[in-house]
Amino acid sequence: MIYMSKYRFFGLRPQNDKLRSIIIVLLLFIAVPSFGCTSVIVSGKYTKDGKAVMFKHRDSSCQDVAVEYFQGEKYRMMCLVNADWRTNPLAKVPLGTHEAWAGENETGFAIMNTATYDLKDDDIPMELMDREGVFMYRALEICATLEDFEHYLDTLSRPMYVEANFGVIDNQGGAAYYEVNNHSWSKYDVNREPLGYRVVTNFTMTGRVEDRKGVDRYIKAHKILASSYVPMEEWDHTFFVKNISCSGAPILRDITSCAITFEGNTMWASLGKPDKVPCLPYKL
Q1: Count of C-beta atoms within a 10 Å radius of residue 175
Q2: What distance, in Å, lies between the first and last C-alpha atoms of the chain?
Q3: What DSSP string describes 193-259?
Q4: Which strand (E) or helix (H) includes residue 149?
Q5: For residue range 69-78, what is the model confidence (pLDDT) as tens digits?
Q6: I need a labelling partner for 264 at 20 to 30 A (CA). Which of 29, 99, 122, 127 fits?
Q7: What is the C-alpha to C-alpha distance for residues 109 and 169, in angstroms, rounded to an integer?
Q8: Strands 185-189, 2-4: parallel, antiparallel or unpaired by DSSP?
Q9: Domains along the chain?
């Protein structure tokens, strides 16, 4: 396990040569086609109720999504799922298990992911990868806190068949992103972010720079948040859908399938193009 607390951001003037160099390198990748999702976690230190807010704008080849409820091994949970996961032969869901592409359980533990393309460092065949949905479903079944999730990461059999950023919040004030590949993980504590929030798209801080995706969306989301006149304590589901999901290209795309915000033990979901469908609350 590697613990990481350093931060990177755009939309603000860099204060040192090292950060300035990082920005220049990342700007080189703006023209590269990007894949995956755009996400934000806001520390509970800056919200009205003291609980973290977690937002995911999902891009996916599967446009038909739904929220389903499950009774897990330990906890009840509500999950964002691909509506055809039971019948799609391409879905990588082992017999007897389920998948979730974001979700929250009855303890207030919530999880989401964004795909990465710069972390895999082994020869595990690609056809065995992309188990993030199964990985998150299992986490929702058994985890109540960030500590539970980290124990899950430490004890899960290797390889884990994932390559992703995972955003996690809990009811005890925990809020963090985890960069995870088949064998290891790194943590970024959002409560230690100088800005009070963290933006994550489809690259990591520990992976290969040449394989980064989603840098254009990362920069745009940062600029939107850094220039917002709305106080951070008012950054809720309405704010994120209006200002991030509906901000146009490169964030709102043909492959956008939904927007999810975890806020005060409620999962707000726009199931479809966020600029065309309502954002509705889901509760356990």
Answers
A1: 28
A2: 33
A3: -TTSEEEE-B--SSS-GGG-B-HHHHHHHHHHHHT--S-GGG--HHHHIIIIITS-TTTS-TTEEEE
A4: helix 146-155
A5: 999 999 999 9
A6: 99
A7: 6
A8: parallel
A9: 2-282 (3.60.60.10)
